[in-house]
Design brief:
InterPro entries: Cu_amine_oxidase-like_N, Mao_N_sf. It holds the Pfam family Cu_amine_oxidN1. This is Copper amine oxidase N-terminal domain-containing protein. By secondary structure, the chain is mainly beta. The protein folds into three domains: about 10-200, Nucleic acid-binding proteins (OB fold (Dihydrolipoamide Acetyltransferase, E2P), Beta Barrel), CATH 2.40.50.140; about 210-380, no CATH class; about 385-470, Copper Amine Oxidase, Chain A, domain 1 (2-Layer Sandwich). The chain is about 5% helix and about 35% strand. The protein is built from four helices and 38 strands. The strands form ten sheets. Strands 1-10-13-15-12 form a five-stranded mixed sheet, with no helix packed on it. Strands 32-33-34-35-36 form a five-stranded antiparallel sheet, covered by helices on one side. It is globular and about 85 Å long. The chain starts with 11 loop residues before the first helix and ends with a helix.
């Protein structure tokens, strides 16, 4: 699965914007009165809300619906194992136009496509009946972590898991559950006798710290360098970075097929956290693997697997078949035993709903090797990248080489602020102010002159004479 460990970037923003407050109909309950900042409660589930669009039935029997909320769009796939309830906890049918809240396990593999497509564990639809549906994690006293709700369980309270199996009240403790209830007291915490509770199986798993960092984005440009390597540019204003790609970089799509990089492709790059980094801005990484998103069915996850082929997070078990392709990064074939204790990319399509989920992968690419890992801290290489950046990005105007101002100035430690007509550069006691299409500029209020006026040669990118950049570092 493409996670955002960075965070998965492609779907995280949309999902977060769709998260709502607890799903309540007919009444509110008392909230704690405090001026203190409330501690953020960890959860394995995101809540997606909206109005159901047209419901289509796929050949597989799954239902599919697309939800449009202004500029935001996402889809839901509902299978036979998806629990569909109304806000009173009764089983319900999905109908176009109904308001809903979908509860999606954020650790579950998902298709890396846009608009994002989710497979929720539970869908709760709104009715006119009085009823509140709320997700929470409850302690031994059956009080949720937020201290806003205490459950007074009775013999009539139905407690089940997602499969509909009956559970004891002790099975609620420490696990996330959806609680369906009606009236509640106005005490703190509010108290209620729930009609039904659905335990969402897992307690919060321990966070695993992996050896790889994930970077997601969209290819805005590809530059072929003199040494035949490529520089893949993600020019997002909020998170610009570049990827240095060579013949050892694994480049595949989300089904495991080889693919050629091209502008406009959405990707997830896996970078070894122990690999030396180049201190420039925007940052530049050398990934071990780049996975390109397509509309084809295919999940990708990166993890480390034990001798039973279960990953460290206990979320996925591999049932390796004879036709499962297993290679290292250079394409050499490996045995399944060589996966053990190594970090690998796993490509698959269908998995069970068990814990851990089980799948028969189509392809496995081992990213690490059996050599003893270094125990020393990562080495940071500080390289002079000015000449390389200029080589890749420059124009000539009347014989003067014009180079990008912001990326070069910021790589030299300057703060660059746009004025709308130009920019102000500051660092320590240094200050420069330049104006596009004007040869005069100021250096600590002293007026100086460019040979060629700064120019907006590309959208949102001002170019200045090369000599100005070298003067910024005292040359």
């Amino acid at each position: 699965m493409m996670k955002k460990t960075m965070t998965m970037a492609l779907t995280a923003t949309l999902a977060t914007s769709a998260i709502s407050a607890p799903f309540a109909f007919a009444q509110d309950k008392a909230e704690p009165i405090s001026n203190e900042v409330q501690e953020e409660i960890a959860t394995n589930f995101i809540q997606l809300t909206g109005k159901l669009g047209k419901i289509e039935k796929r050949e597989s029997g799954m239902l599919f619906t697309t939800i449009e909320q202004g500029d935001e769009t996402f889809s839901l796939t509902i299978g036979e194992n998806t629990l569909v309830l109304d806000n009173t906890g009764k089983k319900a049918e999905l109908k176009e136009g109904l308001q809903f809240t979908a509860f999606v396990n954020k650790n579950k593999p998902m298709l890396a496509i846009y608009p994002p497509q989710y497979a929720p564990e539970v869908v709760v639809v709104e009715t006119n009946d009085m009823g509140i549906a709320e997700i929470g994690t409850f302690d031994k006293d059956f009080v949720n972590k937020e201290n806003t709700l205490k459950l007074n369980l009775s013999e009539e309270s139905q407690i089940t898991n997602l499969a509909g199996e009956k559970l004891a009240k002790e099975d609620i403790i420490g696990k996330e559950a959806i609680v369906f209830y009606g009236p509640a007291t106005f005490s703190i915490p509010a108290q209620t006798s729930p009609s039904s509770i659905v335990v969402l199986e897992d307690a919060q798993p321990e966070e695993e710290v992996g050896n790889f960092i994930e970077f997601t984005g969209e290819i805005s440009d590809i530059v072929t360098r003199e040494n035949s390597t490529q520089l893949v540019v993600n020019d997002d204003k909020e998170n610009p970075f570049s990827l240095a790609v060579d013949n050892e970089t694994v480049v595949l799509d989300n089904t495991g097929k080889e693919v050629k990089l091209a502008k406009g492709m959405k990707f997830t790059a896996y970078v070894d956290s122990q690999k030396p980094a180049i201190l420039i801005y925007p940052p530049q990484y050398a990934p071990e693997a780049i996975i390109i998103e397509t509309e084809e069915m295919g999940f990708v996850t990166v993890s480390t697997f034990d001798e039973n082929f279960v990953n460290k997070e206990n979320t996925l078990k591999l049932n390796i078949a004879e036709d499962t392709v297993i290679t290292n990064r250079t394409g050499e074939k490996l045995t399944k035993e060589e996966i053990i204790d190594q970090t690998a990319l796993v490509f698959y399509t269908v998995s069970t709903k068990s814990i851990p989920a089980q799948t028969t992968p189509a392809k496995i690419v081992v990213l690490t090797d059996n050599e003893e890992p270094s125990t020393s801290a990562p080495v940071i290489e500080v390289l002079d990248m000015i000449a390389e950046i200029i080589e890749q990005d420059h124009y000539e105007v009347n014989g003067v080489k014009m180079v990008p101002l912001r990326v070069l100035a910021e790589s030299l430690g300057f703060t660059v602020k746009s004025t709308g007509k130009g920019a102000v550069l500051t660092k320590d006691n240094l200050s420069y102010e330049i104006t596009r299409d004007q040869k005069e500029y100021t250096h600590n209020r002293a007026i100086k002159k460019f040979e060629v006026a700064p120019t907006l040669l590309e959208k949102n990118k001002t170019y200045v004479p090369q000599e100005f950049i070298y003067s910024l570092r005292g040359e």
